[in-house]
Amino acid sequence: MVDHVHLLVEAVDAADLSRAMHVLKGASARYLLESVPGIRMDAGTNHFWQKRYGTKPVDPGALASVRNYIRTQRERPEKYAR
After folding, report:
1. Coil, helix or strand at residue 68
2. Which residues does 53 contact at the CB level (< 8 Å), separation at least 6?
3. DSSP letters along 10-50, please?
4. From CA 56, how far away is CA 69, in angstroms rounded?
5. Which of 21, 22, 49, 57 has the fewest Cβ atoms within 10 angstroms?
6. How far is CA 45 from the centre of its chain?
7. What pTM was computed for the model?
8. How far apart are CA 34 and CA 32, in angstroms?
9. N- to C-terminal Cα distance for the chain?
10. How far is CA 9 from CA 22, 24, 30, 67, 81, in A?
11. Got the DSSP string for 46-65?
């Protein structure tokens, strides 16, 4: 079961990233909850996404590799089996 997503987001600073994540998480949650009314919320809360998120800076030389990793995740479902 896939329990997370990877995004490649360009942000000027931490505040810019925080705003972007707020918008992305809010819009995607609203869309999913309206499209799939029976979808499960995060355990024990009234939120679809967890409140926090993880970040990792990407070196400009690694952008192509990271983009490829994100694009090809669906080809590696065995890594997500639990």
Report:
1. helix
2. 21, 25
3. --SSHHHHHHHHHHHHHHHHHHHHHH-TTPPPSTTSS-SS-
4. 14
5. 57
6. 18
7. 0.72
8. 5
9. 7
10. 13, 10, 20, 11, 26
11. S-SS-S--------GGGHHH
Q: Report the distance separating Cα 40 and Cα 57, nearest Å.
A: 31
Residues 6+ apart with CB under 8 A from 28: 48, 49
How many residues are listed for the chain in this entry?
Answer: 82
Both tokens assigned to 8: 């490649």
Q: By CB neighbour count within 10 A (0-12 exposed, 13-18 middle, 19+ buried), where does 76 fall?
A: exposed
pLDDT tens profile 16-74: 999 999 999 999 988 988 888 777 766 666 778 888 899 999 999 999 999 999 998 87
